[in-house]
Amino acid sequence: MANKRKIINDPVFGFISVPNDLVFDVLQHPYVQRLSRIRQMGLSFFVYPGATHTRFLHSLGAMYLMQEAQTVLRQKGIDISHQEGIAADVAILLHDVGHGPFSHVLENTLISGVCHEDISLSMMQRLNQQMAGKLDMAVSIFTDCYPRHFLHQLISSQLDVDRLDYLSRDSFFCGVSEGTVASARILKMLGVVDDRLVVEAKGIYSIEKFLVARRLMYWQVYLHKTSVAAEQMLIYILRRAKELAHRGEELPCSPALRYFLYNDITAVDFNGNDNIIDEYAALDDSDILSAVKSWQNSNDKVLAVLSRAFTSRQLFKVKLLEQPLNPQEKETLTAQYMKHFGVDEYEAKYFYDIYSVSKDTYSQQDDSIDIIFNDGTIKDISEASDMLNHDTLTRRVVKHYLFYYKIV
Amino acid sequence: MANKRKIINDPVFGFISVPNDLVFDVLQHPYVQRLSRIRQMGLSFFVYPGATHTRFLHSLGAMYLMQEAQTVLRQKGIDISHQEGIAADVAILLHDVGHGPFSHVLENTLISGVCHEDISLSMMQRLNQQMAGKLDMAVSIFTDCYPRHFLHQLISSQLDVDRLDYLSRDSFFCGVSEGTVASARILKMLGVVDDRLVVEAKGIYSIEKFLVARRLMYWQVYLHKTSVAAEQMLIYILRRAKELAHRGEELPCSPALRYFLYNDITAVDFNGNDNIIDEYAALDDSDILSAVKSWQNSNDKVLAVLSRAFTSRQLFKVKLLEQPLNPQEKETLTAQYMKHFGVDEYEAKYFYDIYSVSKDTYSQQDDSIDIIFNDGTIKDISEASDMLNHDTLTRRVVKHYLFYYKIV
Amino acid sequence: MANKRKIINDPVFGFISVPNDLVFDVLQHPYVQRLSRIRQMGLSFFVYPGATHTRFLHSLGAMYLMQEAQTVLRQKGIDISHQEGIAADVAILLHDVGHGPFSHVLENTLISGVCHEDISLSMMQRLNQQMAGKLDMAVSIFTDCYPRHFLHQLISSQLDVDRLDYLSRDSFFCGVSEGTVASARILKMLGVVDDRLVVEAKGIYSIEKFLVARRLMYWQVYLHKTSVAAEQMLIYILRRAKELAHRGEELPCSPALRYFLYNDITAVDFNGNDNIIDEYAALDDSDILSAVKSWQNSNDKVLAVLSRAFTSRQLFKVKLLEQPLNPQEKETLTAQYMKHFGVDEYEAKYFYDIYSVSKDTYSQQDDSIDIIFNDGTIKDISEASDMLNHDTLTRRVVKHYLFYYKIV
Amino acid sequence: MANKRKIINDPVFGFISVPNDLVFDVLQHPYVQRLSRIRQMGLSFFVYPGATHTRFLHSLGAMYLMQEAQTVLRQKGIDISHQEGIAADVAILLHDVGHGPFSHVLENTLISGVCHEDISLSMMQRLNQQMAGKLDMAVSIFTDCYPRHFLHQLISSQLDVDRLDYLSRDSFFCGVSEGTVASARILKMLGVVDDRLVVEAKGIYSIEKFLVARRLMYWQVYLHKTSVAAEQMLIYILRRAKELAHRGEELPCSPALRYFLYNDITAVDFNGNDNIIDEYAALDDSDILSAVKSWQNSNDKVLAVLSRAFTSRQLFKVKLLEQPLNPQEKETLTAQYMKHFGVDEYEAKYFYDIYSVSKDTYSQQDDSIDIIFNDGTIKDISEASDMLNHDTLTRRVVKHYLFYYKIV
């Protein structure tokens, strides 16, 4: 019998233990193994070359923090049964299982109207079937149907182990020390009141710091204009490829990618359709990167030019716009590309784009971060903090960019 | 005009500066950009899931250390001209440019008789042509034709910046703190005597530590039996694919991979053949991983079984052998696989392998590590160290493994 | 001739170089060596046992950052002469030279009306005399009399290398990762416009993070109630000792401490009085700690009880007060201690105290942190940041504590 | 009732938990609190200015590793009762309690014939009395009288948690990354066979690395010639002070130091003599540093000169000797100091010294480090390692130094 009590080396948290056989089996499932071929940060490696860590490692890290959180809560007298603990471990391990390669890109091109959260649930349910219901409680925690809400909050809320892991991990692999989050300290401050997670008042500064770190990571790293430029370029490449596929043109690509390129898959199709789920589960970063590379030699001018640019890191240039482009500016741009590449007006629009990014630091629509004071009163962090007031915390910042192909 | 004085974030060394336009242009060349799609540690991510960093980042890191080394040597009065400095930067940046995806695997399957060092040189020369000879001095340092030998030693010797970078970097991304090398300290100790690198005597302990760290990284990480098992499995997959290709069977794969699968490319072909070099430069990790994934559905039993196992991380099991298998043991194994898979004797041998790994800690055939004492005498580290004596340092350790597919 | 180009190991920044002979001589001066016997964080080690690093190491670290800042500014075309560079190095090396042991404590007990900044200047001037005017420019930069204001800002402003060092260093030694400041990144963003330091707009997030880290360090570390309790206890001990000394009682203490215990030294005395400066320069942490230890056996009840409590870490207990104590509460407390210790009313007040701490995150009275945008406009960070608005940044937070001796 | 379940911040290991009330009470005892005023690395701060961490923090860190070791062993099925666990925690917390300030110095001057290990035991026994026998088991484990030998080995052997902590900790605070020991990994490899600690075979490389790191720390850090020079200087200062005290001269010093300066305390006196133990427990670094500082103004030439040199870091110069000084060389040196300082021949010998340091990397006299192989065989590391052979590992390296006061 194989030893399933593995210990896995993680450069961020040290040793991560696989707590029991069920978790080991989940970990070894092709659905989860596939995450080891999907970069956690998508195309950010174009800007931060260290950012090639995978969703597999992130899922492991989040599970580690989940185990730590359970230890802390148990020490504080919160009863969490062994079975609940394992179910929560499995739920967090699978929380990202539905992520496709470059998820944001895919959701705008190959697959319409489906978000990765829904796919995660579909895949989790299929996995549960295969495992004869052993994941029932995990699914129930994941969907917030399990009576103990705080377990769900650990998986999905504004202070969940998902965020605690990815902020620390992404900043580690990018080499951006400022994104580091003191996850160990924050976990030590956790408690449960009325079935909801609360943070001890002396943890306020750590929470402030966590929110500021998150804000910094968004604007400096995740929404870095060059990463977004790469993403926009890949979106245009896949849109064009899909367009050509519709027209019946033959494009080199892997069978897995072909399925989504030559078929129109929408949310409805996904529902309980095991076949589509399996096709989806065959897709990872390598299919996209390998295909784009081969499209450099396409006969289609648009596809070839963009694929070459993407592969050689000649990404879209980016300009921050004070105000939207007016029609005449657009016309000038279009004309320029028509002339340069000898393409028609429709095709010329593949060479530039206007894109808006927006992000709030803390959302009061979501599950709040609750601070508990010594006298037992509980306040939302946006009230409890005397620094991060309601307005500034919840204000949505929007920025408009012009992306354009630079003719040399 | 674009700003080419970039600063790049590296989680290991902090900020890495691109020193001038030439280096920037080299960095942006598709040959070098391709390295950002090749994992530095090949299949080690199966064991150390953090180990997904790229040869691109390693090359940058080695260039950083090269710059540091130059600063130290200049402070000690060694004259290194600006042009020499840049040439050495370029040479180290390109030292790995010829690495294919999973190099060791490729050199045993798709390409015969060519090692990546030779390809690096070919690619560097082609790059030099394209850049109108601007890389002349870099090539000359790389091939040790440049009169100042120590510059070559910084690129290729037993204490080169290549090793200083990859030991620190690989241990960082694996989370194996023991492999960390005090590169900054070692560089501070460097000097040049008679055109050769020397290390100040007070650096002996750091050198001992460096050799022990290297030894540890080899046995614990690079030659970890599970990594080697994954490598052997991939070798068998590609060999089988090539065999099928020879027979004229159609296998899904990218155009780049197809070239090497359906043609027999040997060392001779590479020589100055620009076409082959370009085909080779189109190949990266994604082609291999994507193809193997699609081969899971092959009609060929051997290819399908091994591809499925590889993709789902059901790797070969490994047994350390005290002595070689005798013919009868081999027969038993063969018979077992014939029966289980319904394959013939020849095919059955795809399911197990005997493999020997060997490594010395320090080789006296190579350029030695020279220690200089206060009185000016110079000794090889294997003499200078009172701990690491000649015998133990240079002894070659060999281990024999049996790899086999585990029937469940 | 001695080699004065030393390299010093620093756990925070790695290797710190002594750039020339003048800096070496300053470093070796007894005034500066004395800083190696003064803890940077005073009594914080009672809470964070790792926080025993010295003002000497902090001064070195600040000098390292000063050198880094100069490198960055020079690369951006700001001309800083060699002499100016060295002068700024010396100025930052000496910026804390006037700190006494547990400065805050001393300034409330042994020395009246003198702050350590003034003493730093006096000592620097005396040093300059001894060195025949070699520190003229350093003194001039320190006092902001040198025509180039930005050099002074590097030493003393809201974004000076002093803060950049101590936040990183203190968080490192305390093990409070959240205080870490990305000093390298912030320095990379520095520029000089109209002789004033500015920060590039893309550095806004790092500055926000820096201010939040600073805020966190103040409330979580520097003003930690147990540290403040220890400080208050030491203040009461030294006040009592001085009182007894006034009465002519003989207390064991070192000659250096005796001078300040048995004489009344005020700001006026310090002015250019070399003798007092030398007495002051003889004082460090060891005199205070050793004396308090020996006072455990004093015949004076108050001194003995408090000294014993301090030495055994039975520190004052702390209660956060919603509102000031009313006269009756005070009376009750006083009566309690009178009864317990058999002391009179006056003496009883040595066993409790009300103390208020206050801190702002960013002060607009001080030199502002100026952000420069791509179009050349410059804004104060409190305007430039869309998160940290004017009000919240500059609001002064005040907390009132009751400290009291706990009778067991 | 006070909350005694404290969590303490440690920059090396993160959070350290105080597991129960007994441990808390031990931690708060003046004997243990005194360790927070004793530097772990004595005078090494003269060379590594970060090395000011205390024996208190080291003791805490070793306790943390002890807890980790227990967790690992329990997971492997080794039964360790709660009581045994706590006793081992207490034993390691107290293992260094008998260390005086600058122990090596004291053992050569103020106290004759007593080593700190013996004093540790005496103090532990006295503590046990005060605590009504609650430390019985801890004392019994410490003295290896407890039936379970492996618990003693965790406290004192060649792979004990003492060494695992101090190597990592000292390298951390010195900024010498090469001394880092992968304590977490080594602990994971521990097992118990026949009541003895063993290390799993796959841990061999980590053990090799541990021994090499230890060797490096000894030669590069602990026995750094400047640290040893500082130590020798302090030995001479205290010897001279004791000599003067014998003659009846009055020297400023704290009462605690006075006791050992004006009395002759030997091993015999210590035995069960509570008074002496209490006097000893009053002594820490501050007494020595403060006294030496005040002796700068002594009328005795020797004491004044050496005390001034020590306080201003004008330490003895060091020369590595190929062979012992011959009588004539000694005479010349003596004459030189007689002339320069106007002292007699006997006094002149206070200005230079010959000193030999020696160290082995691994001692076979001590408890061995045992490696267990998969087949159950157990070998000593010096046999199990194919790199670190018996001879080299156990060879004692000796170096002879001449220390001398440099006349300027």
What is the name of the CATH class of the domain at 316-408 in chain A?
Alpha Beta
Number of helices of chain A: 21
Instruction: Show the largest interface.
Output: A-B, 49 and 48 residues
Which class do the helix and strand fractions of chain A yield? alpha+beta
Query: Strand tally of chain A, please?
Result: 11
Weakly predicted, low-confidence segments of chain A:
none
Mean pLDDT of chain A: 90
Helix content of chain A: 40-55%
C-alpha end-to-end distance of chain A: 62 Å
* CATH-derived architecture of the domain at 316-408 in chain A: 2-Layer Sandwich
Quaternary state of the chains: homotetramer
The CATH topology name of the domain at 316-408 in chain A reads Alpha-Beta Plaits
Strand order of the largest sheet of chain A: 4-5-9-10
User: What gyration radius of chain A follows from the Cα positions, in whole Å?
Assistant: 23 Å
Main sheet: strands, sense, barrel of chain A: 4 strands, mixed
Give a written overview of the molecule.
4 copies of one chain form a homotetramer. Chain A has 408 residues and is an alpha+beta fold. Chain A has a domain at 316-408: Alpha-Beta Plaits. Chain A is built from 21 helices and 11 strands. In chain A, the strands form 4 sheets. A 4-stranded mixed beta sheet of chain A has the order 4-5-9-10. Chain A has a 3-stranded antiparallel beta sheet with strand order 7-11-8. The relative contact order of chain A is 0.11. At the A-B interface, strand 1, helix 3, helix 9 and helix 16 of A face strand 1, helix 3, helix 9 and helix 16 of B.
